[in-house]
C-alpha cells in the first residue's frame, strides 16, 4: 500500500506526494539547515517524525475526500518523546507545533498544551515502521551549546532554531512536490566575493573622486578601520561612528569581508525605522545589485492570512525577493528591530520559519541604542546566544553606544572597530548644544519666528500642533504620524527644496524626523529628551558642515509638552547629563546617560518577565513558548490603520482592491497611505460614519468626509475626547 503526504486535485492518485519521500526529503533539508550549528542529527530525525500521523488509515481517507478530523502532528511528538530522552522533549515541541506553532508545555487541563497532547489518544499510525527507519538514541547528538546566559535560555533557543529548520524544510519539500514552478523561482546562486568586489570598486571610486578635506580623510579612516577589523575573529563588535561618518557602506564593507574571511552565509541589517531601511536598501541595491538585497518590513511583508491564496493562485507572479521574505534566503537582508527580535521569540510557524538563517551570518544592528529598554535583557541574551552558539558575528552600530557591557557574560567581550572613537567624535562635531531651561509656548514661537530656517522637535503630537497653529503661514510646516507617509514625504520634499533655495522654512515635528531623514537646518530646537534622542536631533543640524557650527537649543516645555511615563525618565536623565557635562553629546556624557538609564530595577529591563518565564521550569524543559510570544511585543499593537485616500493613485488602488477577490495583495501598495489610531478612536470614527470598508479588509476615510476629518497641513484631526487624550503620544 502507498501512503501519501499530500493530495493534488490536478493529478491522479498515483502521482500524489508520497509520504515516505516527504519525510525523508524534509529530514535531509532540515539537516542541511541545522548543520551550521551542529544540530543536523536532531533536525534530520525531526523531519522523519513530523508527519508520522499521516500513516493512519483515517488520514489517508481524508486525502481521498472523507470528512475525518485527524491530528497528524502529535504522533511524531509522542514517538520522539518515547525514543530519545531529553532530546525527545525538544523534538516533541517542534513536531507538535510544526503547523499550529510552538506550544506551551502547560498542563493536561489545556488540550492545546504539549503535556496534554503527549497523552492524547490517536489513530493508529504504526504502519510508518514499514517505510521509515528511525535512528537509535545514541546516534542523535546535541550541538556543543555553551549555556553562558543560562541553561534554560540556551535550550529554548536551540528549540526555536531547530523548529525553524523543520518548518522551513517542510514548506520547501511540500512546495517542490506541489508547486515546482514556485520552487524553481527560489533557486538562486550568489557569490559574496563578487558582491564584495562590486562594493570595494564603488568605494574606491568614491574615495578617488572625493575632495581632500579633513572630514573625508576621517571617513576614509573609518572605512580603513572596518576593512582591518574584518579580519578579527567572529564575535560581538561595536562600531561607534558619528552622524555623517559614512557608516552604512563602511559597515557593509566590514560585513562582506568578514563573511568571506570566515565563510559566513549572509548579511543582515537590523534597523529601527522603515524609513532608514528604505534609504539604506536603496544604497545597497545601487552598489551590489537589486537582486541581491531583500527588504523585509511592513512595506514589503505579505499579509500572512493571504499567504496560501497567493501560493496557490498567484505563484507565477511572485518575485524571488518576495519569496525570500518567507525564510530570509538572500545574501543581504534589511529588516526592522521588531521583525528581527520578535521573530526570535515568536511561536507561529510563519514568524519562526526564517530564523535558522541567522546562524553563521553577519548581523549589523544599526542604531543599537534603540533596542527597547523594557526588553533589553531578553534581546541581549538572544544576541549573546547567536554569537556564542550559532557562529554569528554581530555589530552594534551607533553614534551613541549604549552601556551594555555589564549585562554581557564575561565570555563575550565586544571589540570596538574604530581605533579612537573620542577623536572621531571631536572631528565630526558640527554643532553647539545649549540648555535654555523652561520655555513657554509663547516664548518658543517668538524664538522660532525670529529664525528664517529652523527645526523644532517636540515630544507629543498635541504640542506639535499647538506650536504649528501659533506660527502657521507661508514656509511653515508640520510633521507627525497623524499624517500618512505619502503626505509626510510631500512635505519633506517641499522642506528640502526651500532649504536648498535659501527660502524661509520653519518645521514643527515630532521625533519621527530624528532618524532616516536626510535634512539640514542651521538651527534646531529640541524639547528635553534622552541624550540619544537629542543626539539624533543634532544630526539634523549643520549635517553637511556648511557652517562652522550649527546651534541646537534644548528646552523644557510647558506641561502639555512634557513626556509621560518612561519617556519622562529619559528626559530627566538627559537633563542630568546636561548639568554634569560640558558637552552632553560627547562619549562620556552618552556613557553616563545609558549607565543611569539602565541602573534601574532589573524588572524594568525585562518588563514582561520573559527571562523569569523561561527559568521557571527550565530543569524539566517545560517552556511557555506561546505565552512568551504573546508577551514579547516591542510595539503596542492595540491600533488599527485607517487608509487616507490622499491622491488618485490611492483611490485607483482602492477601487481595484474592492473588485479583486484577493484584496490582501494590495496591502503593500496602500501601506504608505495609512494612519494608525488607537482602538477607542477607531471605534468612534466608525460610530460617526467616517469610515468605509473596502475589499472586506481596508478601513478607509470616506472621501466625502475627507475635508472634515483630514487636514492638508496637520493630517488626521482630533475631534473626540479619546483623540485628544491619545494625541499626546510622541510620534
Automatic annotation (TrEMBL):
GO biological processes: defense response to virus
SMART domains: DEXDc
Domain HD Cas3-type: 12-172
InterPro entries per the UniProt record, alphabetical: Cas3-like_dom, CRISPR-assoc_Cas3_HD, CRISPR-assoc_Cas3_HD_sf, DEAD/DEAH_box_helicase_dom, HD_domain, Helicase_ATP-bd, Helicase_Cas3_CRISPR-ass_core, P-loop_NTPase
UniProt-listed Pfam families: Cas3-like_C_2, DEAD, HD
One term of GO molecular function: hydrolase activity
Keyword Repeat: no
Domain Helicase ATP-binding: 228-419
UniProt keywords, alphabetically: Antiviral defense, ATP-binding, Helicase, Hydrolase, Metal-binding, Nuclease, Nucleotide-binding
Tagged with keyword Oxidoreductase: no
Superkingdom, natural source: Bacteria
Family statement: In the central section; belongs to the CRISPR-associated helicase Cas3 family. In the N-terminal section; belongs to the CRISPR-associated nuclease Cas3-HD family.
Protein known as: CRISPR-associated helicase, Cas3 family
Species, as recorded: Desulforamulus reducens (strain ATCC BAA-1160 / DSM 100696 / MI-1)
Amino acid at each position: 500500500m502507498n501512503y501519501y503526504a499530500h493530495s493534488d486535485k490536478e493529478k491522479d492518485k498515483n502521482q500524489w506526494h508520497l509520504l515516505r519521500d516527504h519525510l525523508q526529503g524534509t529530514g535531509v533539508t532540515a539537516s542541511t539547515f541545522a548543520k551550521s550549528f551542529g544540530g543536523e542529527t536532531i533536525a534530520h530525525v525531526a523531519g522523519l517524525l513530523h508527519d508520522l500521523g499521516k500513516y493512519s488509515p483515517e488520514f489517508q481517507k481524508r486525502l481521498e475526500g472523507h470528512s475525518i478530523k485527524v491530528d497528524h502532528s502529535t504522533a511524531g511528538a509522542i514517538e520522539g518523546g518515547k525514543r530519545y530522552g531529553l532530546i525527545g522533549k525538544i523534538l516533541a515541541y517542534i513536531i507538535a507545533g510544526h503547523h499550529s506553532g510552538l506550544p506551551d508545555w502547560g498542563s493536561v487541563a489545556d488540550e492545546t498544551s504539549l503535556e496534554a497532547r503527549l497523552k492524547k489518544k490517536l489513530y493508529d499510525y504504526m504502519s510508518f515502521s514499514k517505510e521509515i527507519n528511525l535512528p537509535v538514541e545514541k546516534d542523535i547528538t546535541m550541538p556543543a551549546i555553551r549555556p553562558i546566559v543560562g541553561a534554560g535560555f540556551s535550550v529554548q533557543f536551540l528549540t526555536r532554531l531547530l523548529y525553524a529548520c523543520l518548518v522551513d524544510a517542510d514548506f520547501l519539500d511540500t512546495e517542490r512536490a506541489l508547486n515546482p514552478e514556485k520552487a524553481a523561482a527560489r533557486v538562486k546562486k550568489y557569490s559574496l566575493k563578487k558582491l564584495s568586489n562590486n562594493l570595494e570598486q564603488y568605494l574606491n571610486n568614491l574615495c578617488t573622486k572625493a575632495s581632500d578635506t579633513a572630514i573625508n580623510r576621517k571617513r576614509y579612516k573609518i572605512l580603513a578601520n572596518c576593512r582591518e577589523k574584518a579580519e578579527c575573529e567572529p564575535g560581538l563588535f561595536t562600531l561607534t561612528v558619528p552622524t555623517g561618518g559614512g557608516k552604512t557602506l563602511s559597515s557593509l564593507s566590514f560585513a562582506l569581508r568578514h563573511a568571506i574571511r570566515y565563510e559566513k552565509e549572509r548579511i543582515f541589517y537590523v534597523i529601527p525605522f522603515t524609513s532608514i531601511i528604505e534609504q539604506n536598501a536603496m544604497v545597497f541595491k545601487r552598489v551590489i545589485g537589486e537582486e541581491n538585497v531583500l527588504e523585509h518590513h511592513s512595506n514589503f511583508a505579505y499579509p500572512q492570512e493571504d499567504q496560501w491564496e497567493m501560493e496557490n493562485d498567484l505563484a507565477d507572479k511572485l518575485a524571488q525577493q518576495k519569496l525570500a521574505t518567507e525564510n530570509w534566503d538572500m545574501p543581504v537582508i534589511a529588516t526592522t528591530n521588531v521583525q528581527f527580535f520578535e521573530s526570535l521569540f515568536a511561536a507561529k510557524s510563519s514568524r519562526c520559519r526564517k530564523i535558522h538563517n541567522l546562524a553563521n551570518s553577519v548581523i549589523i544592528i544599526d542604531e543599537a541604542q534603540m533596542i527597547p529598554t523594557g526588553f533589553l535583557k531578553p534581546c541581549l541574551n538572544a544576541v549573546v546566544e547567536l554569537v556564542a552558539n550559532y557562529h554569528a558575528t554581530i555589530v552594534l552600530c551607533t553614534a551613541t553606544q549604549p552601556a551594555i557591557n555589564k549585562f554581557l557574560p564575561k565570555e563575550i567581550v565586544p571589540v570596538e572597530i574604530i581605533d579612537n572613537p573620542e577623536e572621531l567624535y571631536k572631528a565630526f562635531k558640527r554643532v553647539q548644544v545649549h540648555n535654555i531651561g523652561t520655555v513657554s509656548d509663547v516664548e518658543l514661537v517668538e524664538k522660532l519666528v525670529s529664525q528664517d530656517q529652523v527645526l523644532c522637535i517636540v515630544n507629543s503630537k498635541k504640542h506639535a500642533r499647538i506650536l504649528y497653529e501659533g506660527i502657521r503661514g507661508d514656509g511653515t510646516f508640520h510633521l507627525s504620524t497623524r499624517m500618512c507617509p505619502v503626505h509626510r514625504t510631500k512635505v519633506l520634499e517641499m522642506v528640502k527644496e526651500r532649504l536648498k533655495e535659501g527660502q524661509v522654512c520653519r518645521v514643527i515635528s515630532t521625533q519621527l524626523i530624528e532618524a532616516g531623514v536626510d535634512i539640514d537646518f542651521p538651527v534646531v530646537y529640541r524639547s528635553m529628551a534622552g541624550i540619544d534622542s537629542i543626539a539624533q536631533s543634532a544630526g539634523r543640524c549643520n549635517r553637511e558642515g556648511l557652517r562652522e557650527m550649527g546651534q541646537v537649543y534644548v528646552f523644557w516645555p510647558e506641561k502639555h509638552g512634557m513626556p509621560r511615563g518612561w519617556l519622562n525618565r529619559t528626559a530627566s536623565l538627559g537633563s542630568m547629563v546636561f548639568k554634569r557635562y560640558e558637552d552632553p553629546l560627547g562619549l562620556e556624557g552618552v556613557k553616563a546617560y545609558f549607565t543611569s538609564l539602565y541602573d534601574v530595577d532589573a524588572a524594568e529591563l525585562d518588563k514582561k518577565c520573559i527571562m523569569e518565564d523561561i527559568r521557571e521550569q527550565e530543569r524539566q524543559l517545560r517552556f511557555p513558548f506561546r505565552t512568551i510570544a504573546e508577551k514579547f511585543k516591542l510595539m503596542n499593537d492595540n491600533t488599527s490603520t485607517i487608509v487616507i485616500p490622499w491622491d488618485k493613485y490611492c483611490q485607483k488602488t482602492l477601487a481595484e482592491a474592492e473588485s479583486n477577490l484577493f484584496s490582501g495583495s494590495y496591502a503593500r501598495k496602500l501601506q504608505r497611505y495609512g494612519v494608525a489610531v488607537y482602538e477607542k478612536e477607531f471605534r468612534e470614527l466608525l460610530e460617526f460614519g467616517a469610515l468605509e470598508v473596502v475589499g472586506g479588509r481596508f478601513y478607509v476615510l470616506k472621501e466625502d468626509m475627507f475635508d472634515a476629518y483630514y487636514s492638508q497641513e496637520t493630517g488626521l484631526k482630533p475631534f473626540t475626547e479619546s483623540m485628544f487624550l491619545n494625541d499626546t503620544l510622541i510620534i
